[in-house]
Amino acid sequence: MERFLAGDRRALARIISRVEAEGDDGRDYLRTLFPHSGKSHIIGLTGGAGSGKSTLTAALTAEYRRRGKTVGIVAVDPSSPFTHGAILGDRIRMQEHALDPGVYVRSMAGRGALGGLAPTIDSVVAVMDAFGFDYVLIETVGAGQDEVEIAGTALTTVLVNIPGTGDDIQAMKAGILEIADVLVVNKADHPGADILVSQLRALLSLAPHGQRRPPIVKTTATKGEGLEQLAEAIEEHRDYLEQSGEMGKVRQAEARHQVLGIARQMLLERIRHSMPEPELEALVARVAARELDPLSAAEALTGAGRL
């Protein structure tokens, strides 16, 4: 703990590993460190697969380093539904920051969690926050229209879009578009970028009068273009929260999200440990054979009913 609070990155890495393992020592570390958190600007970058989130995250990090700020990065990679392994390949796109003492990159496996995140994401972000980074960037797994969990973790959510994906905007407007605090049109040097910007503006015009409309920023992350404007848009969002009095509401919503998320994870683990694997498999087999309905099986598993 002393080494962690003194800025030792090896201590940071080891504590994150223990927190991810969800053991008793990891929970003790989290309890001790949580009062030191709450100072970093937590930024979530989400969007469809192939939208350039990793490249954009690396480019935004370079912009913050140019400004003399420290950055922690949590990159979530999808896990195999069969082997449960993950490539953790986002680091490959961020090699330029590997030796920078002002940047720390941590890859996490999604492990089947919904919403493009990982089960222990809130705890890991809290540890990185407590370490004292000016910014903590969270890059999600490629998200669909209902994967909006990042809004409960990040203070500012950046939704990354790219041109040339057809009429996907219509599918997005009922879900993920609504969580965006900043809209990015990445790969802006590709044909159709201006059309996409127009589509996004048209959708934002449908928002109720008086509601904040997120700014739209065009970037070409591979060339480092538009990153200064993106950084300014992110800062403007934080200023808006503080000046409008919305910051307290956002913090309250984040705390609620974190408490319920951890509680769900703990309850699920308790349920899994309360029934021996052979009994669970026998219960599942009865459902597969249509001898028992899933609701009754779940009630039996949770102790809410009887077979």
User: Spans with pLDDT under 50 lasting ≥5 residues?
Assistant: 80-87
Count every beta strand, where a strand is a DSSP E run of 2 or more residues: 7
Largest sheet: 7 strands, parallel
N→C terminal distance: 49 Å
Mean pLDDT over the full residue set: 85
CATH class of the domain at 36-246: Alpha Beta
Question: What percentage of residues falls in helices of 4 or more residues?
Answer: 40-55%
What does the model show?
- This protein has 307 residues and is of the alpha/beta class.
- It has a domain at 36-246: 3-Layer(aba) Sandwich (Rossmann fold), CATH 3.40.50.300.
- It has helices at 2-5, 9-21, 24-33, 53-66, 121-131, 168-172, 193-204, 227-244, 247-274, 277-288, 294-302, and strands at 41-47, 71-77, 103-109, 135-139, 156-161, 182-185, 216-218.
- A seven-stranded parallel sheet has the order 3-2-4-1-5-6-7, sandwiched between helices.
- The chain is globular, with a radius of gyration of 21 Å.
- The termini are far apart.
Features:
single chain, 307 residues, Rossmann fold, seven-stranded parallel sheet, 11 helices, globular
In short:
The protein has 307 residues and is α/β, with parallel strands linked by helices. The protein has a domain at 36-246: P-loop containing nucleotide triphosphate hydrolases (Rossmann fold), CATH 3.40.50.300. The chain has 11 helices and 7 strands.
Give the SSE layout.
Blueprint (H helix, E strand, L loop, with lengths): L1 H4 L3 H13 L2 H10 L7 E7 L5 H14 L4 E7 L25 E7 L11 H11 L3 E5 L16 E6 L6 H5 L9 E4 L7 H12 L11 E3 L8 H18 L2 H28 L2 H12 L5 H9 L5
Parallel strand pairs: 1-4, 1-5, 2-3, 2-4, 5-6, 6-7
Helix pairs in contact: 2-3, 2-5, 4-8
